[in-house]
Amino acid sequence: MKVPLLPLDERKTTFKEVEVGFTQEEAQKEANRCLQCKDPRCVKGCPAGVNIPLFIKLFREGKIDESAEVIRESEFFPSICGRICQHEKQCEGSCILSKAKEGAVCIGGIERYIGDHSKMPKQEKKNGKNVAIIGSGPSGLTTAAVLSLAGVNAVVMEGTNTFGGVIKYGVPEFRLPKEVVAREIAGLHDLGIDFEPNAKIDADSLEEMSKKYDAVFVGTGVGKPRLLTSEGSQLKGVLSAMKFLVNLNQSGIVTISPGEKVVVVGAGYVGIDAARSAVRLGGKVTCITKATREDAMKSVTEKDYVEAEEEGVKFMFGVSVDRFEGTEKVERVHYTNGEKGFIEVDKVISAIGQDHDNDSLKSVIKTGPDGNIIVNKKKQTIVPNVFAAGDCVHGPKTVIEAIATGRDAAKSILKYLDKIDEKKAEKEQSDLIKKDLAKHKTKEEHEKNKDNKDI
Fold it and tell me: Which SS3 state, helix, strand or coil, does residue 190 take?
């Protein structure tokens, strides 16, 4: 069973969530299809390794909060991941029923229902440790959640006034409603996590933080749009997809007018999100990409293309941009796809990827030639108590991969803090033994001096 969708006519003209979601009855019916495989391929297909058979089993038994706990052991945000993960390529694509007539178990739909209807866990203890989290994207929020559950005082520092990173400002409302992200962040606040907006962290402040806090986590993502270099790309009306989405999602700034002809360059998730957003603003949208449809679907699911096409987005695969033409503003996109041609446009949205920002804070920690922060297997930088994970380490990837690496970083931080405590305890024990020996020695000397005096 697939997750029900909003009617097409409404989808094309509104930013309401496209996937309506399962009812309890639908979610239970779909969960009952799970075969509870002894060697579950779905778990192997999940980047976070969620114990899918167990959470489905508990859900079938009516234990929804326990089911949510199992999910959150691997990824903390079922309401988010249940909506925007690439289930068709990951867990569902690996499901043994994927080749059956009814298709794979709709794991994402069940996960979403559980996330939306379960309680958030509570912090039960405090261990006195303090960790700073730089960046409030999926990796940072996950790290903060895992640490807080373990009793750590975690503070999330965000450079803007909006928490959530790419899941808040980069994903359109019709795929991930802001209220869902707000609810998850409110749950993190209830968990005992502090949030500090408009925090400006540079090299000096990072160095100070590494001394002030027991550990620091860096999850700053990649926020710099990759720029088009074709002739005319500097013309007015050529926009970056991420800026377009941020302005729309965060500030409500509309840069597409009804009836405008829009070309989106790039057909990955950001490109498709931008194209579908432009359609909802009344634009007539063509999405072009150098990739063939077959190659493009290695990173984007067929479902995403189908839904976009249903809404009116036209795709041109195997197309390379030659140049942009216009007097003061862009008017034509010249392209090659075996033959040369052009498209008349009013706006161009560039969605060809993201690069690393030249953050000054990175000067304290080592980075590679591509701007990635270099870490070891423990997600540890060259500064022993500074850890990093997510896109700032491995480059732009999926939300679930950022969540998985944030979880791993949190576990490494906890082990690091435990070792610090062990060393502290060993030192205290050693100091105590030395003190006792010193006392014993002083007593012996005193007795010896007393005997000598008596003689």
Answer: helix
- What SS3 class is residue 214? coil
Cα dihedral 147, 402, 177, 113 in deg (nearest 10): -70
Residues 174 and 205 placed together within one structural domain of the fold: yes
Which of 23, 114, 116 shows the shortest CA–CA distance to 1?
23
- Rounded distance between C-alpha atoms, residue 190 and residue 133, angstroms: 17
CATH number for the domain including 85?
1.10.1060.10
Same structural domain, 177 and 141: yes
User: What is the C-alpha end-to-end distance of the chain, expressed in Å?
Assistant: 100
> What contacts 173, CB < 8 A, 6 or more positions away?
15, 16, 17, 249
Beta pairing, strands 320-325 & 332-336: antiparallel
- HEC string of 150-198 equals CCCEEEEECCCCCCCCHHHHCCCCCCCCHHHHHHHHHHHHHCCCEEECC
Question: Does the model's pTM come out above 0.85?
Answer: yes
- Taking the CA atoms of residue 356, residue 360, residue 366 and residue 370 in that order, the dihedral angle to the nearest 10 degrees is 20
Report the candidate in 274, 242, 272 with the shortest Cα–Cα distance to residue 256.
274
More confident residue, 369 or 401: 401
pLDDT tens per residue, range 99-153:
999 999 999 999 999 999 999 998 878 888 999 999 999 999 999 999 999 999 9
Identify the domain containing residue 48 by its residue range. Answer: 8-117
Helix (H, G, I), strand (E, B) or coil at 393: helix
Instruction: Tell me, yes or no, whether 61 and 162 share the same domain.
Output: no
Contact 91, 52 (CB under 8 A): yes
Same domain? For 236 and 348 the reply is yes
In DSSP notation, 56-113 reads HHHHHTT-HHHHHHHHHTT-S-HHHHHHHS-TTTTHHHH-TTTTSTT-S--HHHHHHH
Residue 450 lies in a domain: no
Same domain, 25 and 60: yes
